[in-house]
Design goal:
50% strand; globular; mainly beta; 127 residues; four-stranded antiparallel beta sheet; 11 strands
Length: 127
């Protein structure tokens, strides 16, 4: 198994920035993809973006393109989500996830394509 620990959440004003971190441990050699999801109260878990852990190619949902950046440091087994120009509607618990089974080369967008999940970190954007 892969264990994930998120950090970096907090309170930020509209238009501000936050950088989330997700540190992986355990069977990190088995990671194919790392994804970021968010879930607001009363809403479904939403795909934010993902990164192919080997190539570094990142894919984003349309609503965050140009504002969010996913990167990884393989030597530290850590993935990052840089969030800029944050909006109040993006207030949510943010989760990182690791895909540890080969499911093809395409970006993984669905929660059931990931096997390990972090505990979540709260991001609040004040209006």
């Amino acid at each position: 198994q892969v264990q994930l620990v998120e950090s970096g959440g907090g309170l930020v004003q509209t238009g501000g920035s936050l950088r989330l971190s997700c540190a992986a441990s355990g069977r990190t050699f088995s990671i194919y993809d790392m994804g970021w999801f968010r879930q607001a109260p009363g809403k479904e878990r939403e795909f934010v973006g993902s990164i192919n852990y080997n190539s570094g190619y990142a894919y984003y949902t349309d609503s965050v393109k140009g504002r969010f950046t996913i990167s990884r440091d393989t030597s530290e087994n850590t993935v990052y989500l840089q969030m800029n120009s944050l909006k109040p509607e993006e207030t949510a618990v943010y989760y990182c996830a690791a895909g540890t089974r080969y499911r093809g080369a395409s970006a993984k967008r669905a929660p059931n394509e990931y096997e390990s999940w972090g505990q979540g970190t709260q991001v609040t954007v004040s209006s």
